[in-house]
Specification:
The protein has 261 residues and is of the alpha/beta class. It contains ten helices and twelve strands. The longest helix is centred in the first third of the chain and has 14 residues, at 78-91. It is globular.
């Protein structure tokens, strides 16, 4: 892992079905790793990981549809997300990447491996299961706009500490880099039994669980690793957002797995 800061990432985009998909390319001579964030996130959540891995890996971090600088979509289906990820790799001429995903992005990653196996050489799935059942309806009470940043954060209540990176100033006030209604709709379409997709690919995989996670239970994680060949399970002392809570430990786990390929 590197000890010096890499160059600033390049912001790039492509158009898919009339929508802009924006992504960060951290560059470098290493092998490509596509990183897919979770709900409420965006590509830059993986900047620390890109720094840690920049000696050997080129991190490409997508703002998934409806997040960050990527356009909204009326479609938050499984197919929509996965085809976006495939389109980015195709656009960059990459066939055979490591793909890392957190939460929403984790399901997108293993479904990408299942549906487009030629794009994926290795998987890193962070704290999400093969069965998903969650509810983001609490976000529907968040303000869409507020006159000031302080008032927006006040309106977000206890969630504000997790969302400061998503705060933006718009012409009509302060808001978030996503629409909570989209997040609620997206989660509803993420929920379900995805065992067939988890088991459909055979590339090496690392499953990372936060030991304090309320999203992925220890039993379910063990079952996922036991049932899928070439899958390694590791637990780190964190909640659901392992890459943010223990970034060095997370990067070391990812680096160790990738180095063993």
């Amino acid at each position: 892992m590197t000890s010096t800061l890499p160059p600033e990432p390049k912001r790039a985009s492509l158009t898919v079905a009339g929508r802009c998909l924006s992504f960060l390319d951290f560059g470098g001579p290493g092998r490509p790793l596509l990183a897919l964030h979770g709900h409420f996130g965006e590509g830059r959540t993986f900047a620390r990981l890109a720094w840690e891995l920049s000696d050997s890996w080129r991190i490409i971090a997508l703002d998934q549809r409806g997040h960050g600088l990527s356009d909204r979509s009326p479609d938050f289906s499984r197919t929509g997300y996965v085809e976006d990820a495939a389109a980015v790799l195709e656009h960059l001429g990459i066939h055979g990447a490591a793909v890392l995903g957190h939460s929403l992005g984790g399901v997108n990653a293993y479904q990408l491996a299942a549906w487009f196996p030629g794009f994926v050489d290795a998987l890193i799935v962070e704290d999400i299961g093969a069965e998903v059942d969650d509810d983001l309806s609490f976000s529907l009470s968040w303000p869409r706009r507020a006159p000031t940043r302080a008032e927006l954060l006040e309106g977000l209540g206890a969630s504000a500490g997790y969302l400061t990176g998503a705060v933006r100033e718009y012409p009509d006030g302060w808001g978030l880099a996503f629409d909570p209604k989209d997040m609620h709709a997206s989660q509803q379409q993420l929920n379900g039994d995805h065992w067939n997709d988890w088991l459909a690919s055979a590339c090496p995989a690392l499953l990372v669980r936060g030991s304090r996670s309320t999203v992925l239970s220890a039993e379910h994680a063990k079952d996922m690793a036991a049932r899928r060949p070439h899958t390694r399970l590791i637990g780190l002392r964190a909640g659901h957002t392992v890459h943010e809570t223990v970034p060095k430990e997370f990067a070391a786990a990812v680096s160790g797995f990738l180095g063993s390929l």
